[in-house]
């Protein structure tokens, strides 16, 4: 009996010690992640001259960040007709911390460190990514729901393979045959606008439909009407995602099952064709297993192309319309240029004529500078790396702020917040004070916007992606209309 009691006592002690050791291990691991490691990184970067808002246990800087954003959202933007100083409005925390801590600073999203970089040369080094150390972070939450693991989110050989497909689909020669369809879409939109003379028009909604139509035809050989429900659900998903409410996503159906149906219909037709969807279908049937992509991969690429393509371009066109409405002198200059090329009857412009729209192109570039479609982009590093004169530890994020660079008075001058398209009259280099990395609306390096290859090779300084370049025709038509 005594032996049995001793055995039970020994077992109880063993279990308690094991549980305590397990809890101790978990506690040490937790403290390492949320305290020791953040403090170590903070001290390491501070010793190199990189400072930032101090890390707060568990929360990092998220509470003060959300507080600043909330306060800014309750106040209207002042003097917006004369000044387009949107940086403190859309990213108040970054604007404030740059002024306090300098161009490069360290901030915290919970226990995760984020080095924010705004020096053009450092941004260039990150985007060139010669050693392959700056990776796109794994998508989570609503971003993953919207984009999946599409081209803009993947790394390594997967990215190389799919980038080749996209490059082939959106090469200038490949798109020449669909330019008439794009022009037709613009003309249909403008014809509808004539029925609204003297009435308000929601131009963002109009441009959203237009860019959706263009992408549908160029990438998937369909039309906006064929996928109207899908686009509407995509818009709903983006709106719900912006609230960052995890429960919101279960209130609507994911908007990409119709695209799977489109894939099936394409497979039943004779031949796949040469658009982006066709190339994806061919890759799905590739005999080489290493090159073959899955149905889920195809769906994710469709998500990425629709969202990244039509939302950003619609935003650019909308802001440009607003700027032209405010600055009517430039509206008149653009109209005069267009009529000089097209004539009073607004004849169809070919690609050579579009390339001659210098004033329209200057207006587009200035709109991109003031209101870039993408404000910045994060990267993650999984090993120690040298960035400029700094040594960065592994397991941290590095983000570059496009809007901070575009709105830097030391680069673009004291009139940086003014709408002055003529700053681009001598090209991007002159507009950025001999610092072309200070104007990167479509990115830079190997991960530049996939449509950027449609630039005019004879005029390397002319910025614009595939949809924007062709949709310059849209503005040519709009500018030729009576004011």
UniProtKB/TrEMBL annotation:
Protein name according to UniProt: Cytochrome P450
Provide the protein's localization.
Answer: Membrane
Task: Name the cofactor(s) required for activity, per the record.
Answer: heme
Chief site of localization: membrane
Cite the InterPro entries for this sequence: Cyt_P450 (IPR001128), Cyt_P450_CS (IPR017972), Cyt_P450_E_grp-I (IPR002401), Cyt_P450_sf (IPR036396), Cytochrome_P450_Monooxygen (IPR050665)
UniProt GO BP: isoquinoline alkaloid biosynthetic process
User: Which residues are noted in the entry as heme-binding?
Assistant: 449
